[in-house]
Amino acid sequence: MAHNHAAFLDGTGTTLRIGPSPMPKAGAGELVIRNHAIAINPIDGFQQATGAYLESFPVVLGHDIAGEIYEVGSGVTKFQKGDRVIAHCWGMITKQHEDAGFAEYSRVKAGVTALLPTNVSFTEGVAMPVAIGTAASALYDNLQLPLPSQNATSTGKVLLVYGGSSSVGLTTTQLASAAGIRAVAIASERNHGLCKEMGASQVLDQKDPDLVDKLVAAIGKKDDFVGIFDTISWDDTYANDYKILEKFGSSRLLITHPVPENVPAGVQAKMVFSLGGFAFPVWEQWVPKALQSGALKCRPKPLVVGRGLEKIQDGINRHAKGVSAQKVVVEL
């Protein structure tokens, strides 16, 4: 019988502790994954440092996993034991250690799991789950945009993606483009090629002194503009967001942090949350086929910091120093 271990957070600001953890059991509509790669997300270090969204300790963090299916729950027909998959852990909602990602085995919902092609490594694929969920929240739950398809036609609509070379930015661009939405991205100059490879129609330099005017020209008609998804959500990006929205008389601003104070009148700013049923349709209807065909690319590339649960803390520390067009990953 398999035994599980996890990386526990014992209190706000403490270092992760490795210890035994309950072995997950797959319930109806669920899977248990033997993790081979775990990705680090901004929320992980934020929760460790501040205790945000945590009700009690000890707790297991972690959202992005890639590995092999160990157990299949009742009612699940699309997966079998041994399948290579990526999945989004929902421990932040369920508050159960078994449902978090920083562990050797994790329990996940089958609806946010997808088969991983044999030509894609676990360390590459693990960049995708949280990014898919966050993009789905922005595009479908908030902006009510169409789902991607294999042969999408142009809708004439335009979305501005701020932080276009982040994992969320790159995935949002891919999903939007595959739904006929024209994505205009903002990124550092060295990452323009990557953003265009993912489908951005235009990419502008985040340090350009004429950024706002160039964005207005790139977006075009007011009626075509659906809003801004600011995946960075810092004070300096908000300043540009507000200027752009004012130019267009638009109000839709989606961000990845809590809504700041003193948002200008008329701006509808909302924080997106990656966990929810709104993600099921894109996971079930498009992600598996798109991964197999290569229409959905696993980007950014991994920055592997080591192997083993004890390296997760190193990964969080490395992420805190800043990364660009990379995903911090730990192998197991």
TrEMBL record:
GO terms for molecular function: oxidoreductase activity, acting on NAD(P)H. Coiled coil: none annotated. Keywords: Oxidoreductase. This is Dehydrogenase orsE. It comes from the Eukaryota. SUPFAM superfamilies: GroES-like (SSF50129), NAD(P)-binding Rossmann-fold domains (SSF51735). SMART domains: PKS_ER (SM00829). Residues 13-273 form the Enoyl reductase (ER) domain. Monomer. InterPro entries: ADH-like_C, ADH-like_N, ER, GroES-like_sf, NAD(P)-bd_dom_sf, Trans-enoyl_RdTase-like. Belongs to the zinc-containing alcohol dehydrogenase family.
